Structure formats: structure tokens, C-alpha cells
């Protein structure tokens, strides 16, 4: 069998057995509103489409995409690939203490009842941080060094899997 014919046969077999995985695509271009985001706690969206997660010192807010996002194939334990990009600004209000940061996250539930403010970034509380059954994944944008989480400095990005002790 010629190399070209062999390569064509292999590619054909791979395409035949490949499974199609549905994808979800969406884009937010500064058009935050209450129809495409659910807000919890102190999170607000103003008339200029600016999303604010907190409004005072020691407050907590969360904004979530309203539909569940498929992260695993239903017949497999493999995690599906995803990518994201966004632009943000962390701007403390004059006269208020700055916050600790925020996290882009995948959560098992929408509310904020199991989350704590400050160094917990609205992801965890003092009892579920480190619990392997939390089922929480987050990418933190942290602007405070917390020794209890082994933060590398006061301005870092970390990957959180069921814990605020970042893995990256």
C-alpha cells in the first residue's frame, strides 16, 4: 500500500470513529444586562453596562451565565476543552478598602450561601475550602497575599480546584 493511500485510510478511519461534541459559543462585548447574566449578593449592572461585583467594604457579589455549560461528555469522564478571554479592571472605590480580587469560576450551584467574602473571593468559606467534594474550579485574579493559602505575592493569577491553595 502506498504511503498516501495508507495516510488517507488512517484519516478516514479517525474521522469515522471521531465523536462530535457540541460546543457553546457566546460573546459579551460590554453589553452586560440582567437577561444575559444572573447577579447575586451585591453584584450590580449599571445603565452603562458596567458590572460591579461589590459596592462596599466587606461585601460579596457574583455574576453568572444563566445556562449550564457542558464541561464533560455525558458518556465519558473526560473534561471538554474550553477557552475564554476577557478584559477587566479592578478599581477600588475612593474611601473604601480595596478587595482581594475576583475569580472566573465553574460552580455546582448559583447562589452565594456557601461563599465567604474577602480572601475567600466569593468561592469558598472556612469549612468548604479544601473539601475535595466542593466541585469548584476557579481562576483567581488575586491582589492580596494570603499566607494561609501560600499565595506567591499580592498580585497573582492562580488556578483553584476545590481550594484557594492555587495550583499555578
Task: Describe this protein's structure.
With 168 residues, this protein is mainly beta. The protein has one domain (22-168): Jelly Rolls, CATH 2.60.120.200. It has one helix and seven strands. The protein has a three-stranded antiparallel beta sheet, with no helix packed on it. The chain has a two-stranded antiparallel ribbon with strand order 1-4. A two-stranded antiparallel ribbon has the order 2-3. The N and C termini lie far apart (48 Å). The relative contact order is 0.12. Belongs to the leguminous lectin family. Residues 1-23 form the signal peptide. GO terms for molecular function: carbohydrate binding. InterPro entries: ConA-like_dom_sf, Legume_lectin_dom, Leguminous_Lectin.
Q: What secondary-structure arrangement, pairings included, does this model have?
A:
Layout (H helix, E strand, L loop, with lengths): L2 H15 L20 E4 L2 E2 L5 E2 L8 E4 L36 E6 L30 E6 L13 E6 L7
Keywords: Lectin, Signal
Protein name: Legume lectin domain-containing protein
Family: Belongs to the leguminous lectin family.
